[in-house]
């Protein structure tokens, strides 16, 4: 199983355009006040000064990247989200991936040149129309639209769990399209967070980090994973809801590690979204 997601904040299109357009603002202070208003943030006088400085650095970086995009130097745009005033230490806390210290017998997917060769491009968002509940859009017969809307892990180092569920959601969505069945809903990060936690296993350390391979192994051993609707996510470790833990709306039989090479990653991505960890 493979996939990944990054956590961003959901704003209206007008708010995004205004916030990310430097020509709309006479001063960084006005831009910061607008950012605070749309995210419901307020700071003490001392904290305001520190957070304004962090916001100013973020805004300058975003504006620089977007100017590069407009000039054709890069192919992607940036945006100011609700993490714009976070310090490097605060951002690092959300990077919960812990490279596994436990050896697991997962097969390695190496690139096989032929047949068939990978397609020139694959867009697993094609045909997706997401609502605020993060459900899937309408699936096409060729299995496109295999990712949910962007999720938010909150103040918890649980990125490894979101990467895991994203992969499982992608595989399940593609299989549903192949079988011409109703696509599944999103699956429960909360169940993995609460119920897999193991004080003696650093690969399953809840908000303090973990490893996707450990999470996949846990889902296999748990005989499946519940839906997000039945077992909602909270950005803190809570007591496992054992009643909901018994409800497996999706099951996997294993997972495959992708070899660290471009061809191997291309071959994997051609099959489904892949699970990765980014130090960002």
Q: What does this 3D model show about the protein?
A:
It is globular and about 55 Å long. Helix 5 crosses helix 7 (212-221). It has 9 helices and 2 strands. Residues 1-9, 109-115 and 132-143 have low confidence and may be disordered. It has 280 residues and is mostly helical. It is 38% helix and 1% strand. The longest helix has 27 residues, at 45-71. A two-stranded parallel sheet has the order 1-2.
Structural class designation: mainly alpha
Order of helices and strands: HHHHEHHHHEH
Mean pLDDT: 82
Major pleated sheet: 2 strands, parallel
Which residues sit in consecutive blocks of at least 5 with pLDDT less than 50?
Answer: 1-9, 109-115, 132-143
Q: Radius of gyration in whole Å, from Cα?
A: 20 Å
Shape: globular
Distance between the termini: 23 Å
Q: Looking across the biggest beta sheet, what order are the strands in? A: 1-2
**Helical residue percent band:** 25-40%
E-strand count: 2
Strand content: under 5%
Oligomer: single chain
Count of helices?
9
């Amino acid at each position: 199983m493979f996939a990944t997601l990054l956590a961003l904040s959901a704003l209206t299109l007008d708010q995004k355009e205004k916030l990310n357009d430097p020509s709309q603002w006479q001063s960084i202070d006005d831009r910061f006040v607008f950012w605070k208003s749309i995210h419901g943030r307020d700071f003490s006088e001392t904290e305001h000064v520190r957070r304004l400085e962090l916001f100013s650095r973020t805004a300058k970086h975003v504006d620089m990247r977007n100017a590069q995009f407009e000039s054709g130097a890069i192919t992607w745009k940036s945006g100011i989200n609700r993490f714009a005033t976070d310090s490097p230490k605060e951002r690092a806390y959300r990077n919960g991936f812990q490279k596994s210290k436990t050896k697991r017998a997962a097969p390695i997917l190496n690139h096989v040149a032929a047949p068939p060769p990978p397609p020139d491009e694959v867009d697993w968002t094609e045909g997706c129309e997401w609502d605020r509940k993060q459900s899937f859009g309408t699936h096409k017969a060729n299995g496109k639209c295999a990712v949910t809307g962007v999720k938010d892990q909150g103040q918890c180092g649980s990125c490894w769990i979101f990467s895991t569920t994203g992969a499982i959601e992608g595989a399940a969505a593609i299989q549903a399209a192949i079988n011409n069945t109703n696509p599944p809903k999103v699956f429960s990060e909360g169940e993995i967070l609460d119920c897999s936690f193991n004080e003696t296993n650093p690969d399953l350390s809840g908000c303090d980090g973990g490893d996707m391979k450990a999470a996949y192994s846990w889902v296999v051993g748990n005989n499946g994973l519940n839906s997000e609707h039945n077992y909602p996510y909270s950005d803190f470790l809570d007591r496992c809801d054992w009643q909901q833990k018994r409800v497996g709306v999706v099951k996997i039989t294993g997972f495959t590690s992708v070899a660290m090479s471009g061809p191997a990653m291309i071959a994997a991505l051609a099959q489904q979204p892949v699970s990765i960890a980014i130090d960002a």
